[in-house]
Write a structure and sequence with these properties.
By secondary structure, the protein is α+β, with helices and mostly antiparallel strands. It has helices at residues 51-63, 70-80, 118-132, 145-164, 171-174, 199-205, and strands at residues 20-26, 29-35, 45-48, 85-89, 176-182, 189-194. A 6-stranded antiparallel β-barrel has the order 1-2-3-4-6-5.
Length: 206
Amino acid sequence: MHEVHIVPPPNNLTSPYQVSVKIRNLEGTLGYMFDLPDTNGKGYKLWTPHALTVWEVKRYCHNEPMIPETISVCRYLVLRGCTFRTLRQVENDQARPLKKTPEIFDLGNRPRDYKGDKYDYAGYEKARLEHMSRPWCRAALLKGGILWRLALDSLGEKGINRVMDGPSAGAAIYGTHWHATDAQNRATRELYFDDDIADTDIGIIC
């Protein structure tokens, strides 16, 4: 595991709309959690491991004519292809996730010297779209990079809305759970969960 070094934001990292950012350690990974209005009652918080994303959000909030909320900033981050999470807090700190039974799903096999054609690619796109319809695959849109681009190409506006709605119904049981601690006060310890994707999911999407 590579050690991640993040430069803490200055104490005055606040937009005209009083958007505060707190440093939170997500079980070994330092990052930033945004404290934004949530009048839509989605019940999740945005967290990112990248300091640059903090500055992008700060600039976005500064330029918005309306008071930015969790879902509007979430949409902005998806459209920008940023890496982040939509964390919902677990009320019972003892709760732990169950192990999800992997689904048997692949793209089939071809000989080593096989050369694909447009029909193979069309089949891949169809299989990718079918797989991306699974609730937890919304997490691909939170990853950034080529994974984000392919997921956005498959799901479009529907996928963005799924991200803005927060963790899927099964995420509390089958998703990934993290303990978040305050970087300066380790006594502050909260348990959060979100959807996540496995290597098998990534292999199908990419």
